[in-house]
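Work Package 4 report. The design task specified in the project plan requires that, given a folded chain encoded as structure tokens, an amino acid be chosen for each position. We show below one input record used in the internal validation round.
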């Protein structure tokens, strides 16, 4: 996911036309436009401030989509934050069911966002053409949607505009979640308030202008999409916006009689007006209707960023060398050092073209077999925590009776992580590397049978392992500073943060708040804490 500047690719697209050999252009025809290594083709779509064109990597031969954003139009329409946010989020994420960003090429007049090419059109058109789908087909789409949304949520990204128009289909009819322009990273210490998305798919708390934590609004939208897949229509629809809003706020919709009991049960738990009572993704994953014929690659929750580091595929490497002529050692060095340049982009393009899901990945899996792994069961966790508690200083005074802080609403059901509004190119970082596969901790939610004191002791243990400096001004608050000796944080990139334990109605919430530091160093620090915690 490299970023290039105008000095690297030329000031404008017209200057780059000269790099195309004249002999390859038929007489009387305009030479193709070339942006960096990409030759632009037909227009795929036109937006309010740019176009999306088909592109071809001249060395790899791989087809891509190139979104051309005119800088002056973006600035004039005050859309700079939206564009910046979408590019930042695309850089952070890498999942089979999310649109993949390859690189960003910048010129003085335009920004070229190069993403994977999706040929199957929108899920919306698919539903319009086919009508209501058989439950097996609807379930397959829904499983892929939940897999992508869960991945976003585990990386603290809330989409906020999920609808069939933003779900693209590839040549194998696999879902790709697109249009992350309205997405946001959960901000720490406060709820999101912006009314985003399309009214028909928006949750009651969104259209009411109420604060919301984030994940629960995506759950509602997924419920509406599931209804559309199974019924060929929307649960909430009215020509009058006022009447539509009344229906959504009251949760008034009719469930068709032809739906199976399992589908009816799942939809009814997703389209719940009270966000606190709404089903969570973790609960959706365990629902019998969802787990039926669940593909193997979706059978476990997606890893957090630190588990995404992959080994180099030798077949892909050889093909990359053959197609591009790039030196093998430069490709290997760039991949191993997390660089984002021409070598890694070429490797990723070829890898994506070769790496199709094999039959074993698409086979259903018995979900019951996924809850008995040695070393990470409930018993082993309790044993570990009890050892920590028994070795703790009994004079610490930590009590298991945790009050609900007066400044936190009892409606809070999700932790949020802070984010600065500004995005600097130097802050863009590759995949995080934080050691072993992380344990489950969803957006700061501590969803376990542990007591408050046990959770605090686990936080102390994690910070000690990370060798961060910390102090505890109160029983349930920790102020921490990342280690200057850690290679991930330079002296100028150290992060100061506060970890606060709260209690809501039926769970504990660990809220992480940024005090001092830059955007991506803070996100990295959050990932490191999550990876180290041994709380499921």
């Amino acid at each position: 996911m490299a970023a290039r500047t105008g000095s690297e690719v030329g000031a404008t697209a017209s200057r780059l036309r000269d790099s195309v050999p004249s002999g390859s252009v038929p007489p009387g025809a305009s030479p193709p436009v070339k942006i960096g290594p990409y030759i632009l083709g037909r227009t795929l779509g036109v937006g309010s401030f740019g176009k999306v064109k088909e592109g071809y990597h001249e060395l790899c031969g791989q087809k891509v989509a190139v979104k051309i954003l005119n800088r002056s139009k973006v600035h004039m329409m005050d859309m700079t934050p939206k564009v910046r946010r979408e590019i930042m989020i695309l850089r952070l994420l890498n999942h089979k069911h999310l649109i993949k960003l390859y690189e960003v090429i910048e010129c003085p007049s335009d920004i070229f966002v190069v993403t994977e090419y999706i040929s199957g059109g929108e899920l919306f058109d698919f539903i319009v053409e086919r009508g209501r789908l058989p439950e097996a087909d609807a379930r397959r789409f829904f499983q892929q949607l939940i897999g992508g949304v869960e991945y976003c949520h585990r990386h603290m990204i809330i989409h906020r505009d999920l609808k069939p128009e933003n779900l693209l289909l590839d040549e194998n009819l696999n879902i790709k979640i697109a249009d992350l322009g309205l997405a946001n990273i959960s901000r720490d210490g406060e709820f999101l308030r912006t009314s985003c998305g399309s009214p028909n798919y928006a949750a009651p708390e969104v259209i009411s202008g109420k604060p919301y934590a984030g994940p629960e609004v995506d759950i509602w939208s997924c419920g509406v999409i599931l209804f559309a897949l199974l019924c060929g229509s929307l649960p909430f629809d009215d020509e009058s916006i006022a009447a539509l809003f009344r229906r959504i706020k009251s949760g008034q919709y009719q469930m068709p009689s032809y739906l199976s009991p399992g589908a009816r049960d799942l939809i009814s738990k997703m389209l719940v007006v009270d966000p606190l009572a709404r089903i969570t993704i973790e609960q959706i994953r365990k629902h019998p209707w969802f787990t039926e014929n669940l593909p193997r690659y979706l059978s476990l929750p997606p890893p957090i960023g630190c588990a995404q580091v992959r080994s180099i595929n030798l077949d892909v490497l050889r093909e990359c060398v053959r197609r591009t002529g790039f030196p093998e050692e430069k490709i290997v060095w760039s991949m191993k050092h997390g660089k984002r340049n021409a070598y890694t982009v070429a490797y990723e393009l070829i890898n994506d073209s070769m790496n199709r899901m094999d039959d074993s990945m698409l086979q259903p899996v018995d979900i019951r077999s996924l809850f008995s792994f040695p070393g990470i069961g409930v018993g082993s966790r309790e044993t570990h925590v009890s050892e920590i508690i028994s070795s703790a200083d009994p004079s610490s005074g930590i009590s298991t009776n945790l009050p609900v802080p007066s400044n936190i609403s009892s409606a809070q059901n999700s932790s949020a992580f802070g984010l600065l509004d500004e995005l600097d190119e130097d802050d863009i970082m590759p995949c995080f590397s934080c050691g072993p596969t992380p344990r489950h901790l969803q957006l700061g939610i501590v969803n376990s049978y542990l007591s408050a004191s046990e959770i605090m002791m686990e936080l102390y243990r994690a910070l000690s392992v990370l060798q961060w400096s910390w102090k505890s001004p109160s029983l349930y608050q920790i102020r921490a500073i990342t280690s200057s000796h850690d290679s991930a944080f330079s002296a100028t990139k150290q992060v100061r943060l506060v970890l606060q334990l709260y209690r809501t109605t039926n769970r504990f919430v660990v809220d992480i708040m940024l005090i001092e530091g830059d955007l991506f160093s803070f996100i990295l620090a959050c990932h490191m804490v999550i990876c180290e915690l041994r709380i499921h």
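The chain has 19 helices and 16 strands. Validation will be extended to a larger panel in the next phase.
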